[in-house]
């Protein structure tokens, strides 16, 4: 349940950050080439997933892949209609 609240809050944060008139983030340089970092959500929890970040081979920036799955059935939670 806490993860669902976190996902909702994170989504609101992302939506609000896109709505603001803001500056681009500074470009990172001299990252280790093709370094990979991965976070995996705890197994045997209602929502599963992983977040992976891989630095580019030119040393600038990081590409993220975010994957969530095994969400509980909508009819089982307090979020049902």
Write the layout of secondary structure elements.
Blueprint: H1 2-19, E1 36-40, E2 48-55, E3 62-69
Short description:
With 81 residues, this protein is of the alpha+beta class. Helix content is 22%, strand content 26%.
Describe this protein's structure.
This protein has a domain at 32-72. The chain contains one helix and three strands, in the order αβββ. It has one helix spanning 2-19; strands spanning 36-40, 48-55, 62-69. It is flat and about 45 Å long. The model has no long low-confidence stretch (mean pLDDT 80).
Give short descriptive properties of this protein.
81 residues, alpha+beta, three-stranded antiparallel beta sheet, 1 helix, 3 strands, 22% helix, flat
Query: What are the secondary-structure elements, in order, as H or E?
Result: HEEE
SS-based class? alpha+beta
Binned strand content: 25-35%
Q: What is the oligomer described by this structure?
A: single chain
| Low-pLDDT segments, ≥5 res | none
Can you list the strand order of the major beta sheet? Answer: 1-2-3
Average pLDDT reading: 80
C-alpha geometry: flat
Q: How many strands in all?
A: 3
Radius of gyration: 17 Å
Which percent range fits the helix content? 10-25%
Largest beta-sheet characterization = 3 strands, antiparallel
């Amino acid at each position: 349940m806490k993860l669902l609240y976190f996902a909702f809050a994170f989504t609101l944060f992302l939506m609000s950050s896109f709505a603001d008139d803001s500056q681009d983030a500074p470009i990172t340089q001299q990252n280790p080439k093709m370094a990979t970092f991965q976070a995996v959500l705890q197994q045997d929890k209602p929502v599963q997933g992983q977040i992976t970040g891989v630095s580019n081979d030119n040393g600038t920036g990081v590409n993220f892949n975010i994957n969530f799955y095994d969400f509980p059935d909508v009819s089982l939670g307090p979020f049902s209609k």
